[in-house]
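step=encode ok
step=design start
structure_in=
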């Protein structure tokens, strides 16, 4: 005998139809900016994974006799310093490659952890409602009242600099967009006729949430994660530039820009090259996020 509760659920509710997915995929592939952003992100991942193989030198190896060597195209550098050397004689190219590891680790880890935290709070707010919803959304409103970089700066200053502390702080201060998005999805879906009929027939609300609300919210949350990742990479560089982020012993783009600020006139490449790398990665991730958003939103699809 067929389950009468299954008939109360709208066919295809909670999952994307093949036709819609195919249209979104075609729209994404036609977006050249999104493809370029994906290529930049792929390059960042490859640099992070294969940094020991790609880097020509040890990024921490110092040679004061070779300090402040200009890039190779300036005609004065040795072939071992393609992008020049810093004030301690460390190879800039190697430090840029290893710095990609820090950016990817902080951006991906913090975006993932804050996503899980936001989904937990957003799910509780939308599912339980009442005072729980008011308390969680009130906390979210309070956090939104303060600039995220200011909260991160204060928290890292209290906990102390360190890669793990930076990830923890970013995860704890970046959950609000995920929570608000998931809560809105739950509030819009839980009043649908098929959900109300399923509840009337005794279907578990938690099962409805898992089967029909979360699948509809997954893609918007992925888009949010892409923009959050770019923001977190920028914030990590800002904290490292200020000296309260990643320790100076770890190669990172923020540390490299901070080291080169005293040599801008005579050794412009020390700060300019990591700045260009940071700009390219953040721009690429934003292009990728815009492409995902345009592909899944029918109103933005041409």
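sequence_out=
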């Amino acid at each position: 005998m067929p389950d009468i509760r299954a008939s109360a659920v709208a066919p295809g509710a909670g999952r994307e139809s093949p036709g819609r997915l195919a249209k979104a995929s075609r729209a994404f592939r036609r977006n050249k900016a999104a493809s370029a952003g994906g290529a930049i992100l792929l390059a960042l991942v490859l640099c992070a994974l294969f940094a020991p193989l790609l880097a020509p030198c040890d990024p921490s190896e110092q040679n004061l006799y070779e300090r402040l060597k200009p890039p190779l195209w300036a005609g004065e550098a040795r072939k071992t310093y393609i992008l020049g050397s810093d004030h301690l004689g460390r190879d800039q190219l190697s430090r840029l490659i290893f710095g990609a590891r820090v950016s990817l680790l902080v951006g991906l880890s913090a975006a993932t952890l804050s996503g899980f935290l936001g989904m937990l709070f957003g799910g509780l707010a939308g599912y339980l409602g009442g005072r729980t919803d008011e308390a969680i959304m009130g906390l979210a409103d309070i956090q939104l009242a303060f600039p995220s970089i200011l909260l991160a700066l204060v928290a890292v200053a209290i906990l102390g600099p360190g890669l793990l502390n930076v990830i923890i702080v970013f995860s704890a201060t970046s959950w609000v967009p995920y929570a608000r998005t998931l809560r809105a999805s739950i509030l819009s879906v839980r009043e649908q006729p098929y959900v109300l009929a399923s509840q009337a027939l005794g279907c578990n609300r938690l099962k409805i949430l898992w089967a029909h609300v979360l699948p509809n919210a997954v893609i918007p949350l992925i888009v949010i994660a892409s923009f959050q990742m770019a923001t977190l990479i920028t914030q990590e560089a800002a904290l490292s530039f200020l000296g309260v982020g990643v320790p100076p012993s770890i190669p990172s783009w923020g540390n490299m820009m901070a080291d080169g600020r005293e040599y801008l006139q005579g050794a412009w490449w020390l700060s300019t090259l990591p700045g260009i790398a940071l700009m390219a990665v953040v721009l690429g991730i934003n292009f990728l996020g815009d492409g995902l958003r345009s592909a899944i939103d029918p109103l933005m699809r041409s």
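step=design ok
step=annotate ok -> Residues 1-16 have pLDDT under 50 and may be disordered.
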